[in-house]
Design goal:
about 0% strand; mainly alpha; globular
Length: about 120
């Protein structure tokens, strides 16, 4: 299994940290930015269309919770099941930048900030 390493390229468009994901670490997934099979993901498509590195760069919505593509039923259900807080991930990126976020997630050894 791959080690968890700090790499801003492993920050998913939605703010999750692919570098700590079990599927990525077991080489079952190439990570969000490289996963061409994830064409179904509206968040990924929107970010690619706008040239954003993640939703943290979005100029249309200051808060990702206001975006219907980001904050849809499926993402809410997955977040609840996995205990992840993607909006908190985006907030952390905005607050501290990509390098610090990647460092934080690597140090925490987590794919997502935990839901409170």
């Amino acid at each position: 299994m791959k080690e968890i390493v700090q790499n801003t390229e492993l920050i998913a468009f939605c703010g999750l940290y692919c570098g700590a994901c079990k599927s990525y670490r077991k080489e079952k997934c190439p990570g969000c930015h490289e996963n061409s099979k994830a064409s179904w993901c509206k968040v990924r498509s929107c970010n690619i269309e706008h040239g954003y590195k993640s939703c943290a760069d979005c100029t249309e919505f200051a808060d990702p919770r206001e975006c219907k593509k980001f904050n849809n039923f499926i993402s809410k259900a997955i977040g609840l099941l996995l205990g992840s807080d993607r909006p908190a991930c985006i907030d952390k990126i905005k607050e501290s930048g990509y390098d610090e976020y990647a460092r934080f997630m690597t140090d925490q050894r987590r794919q997502s900030i935990k839901r409170n």
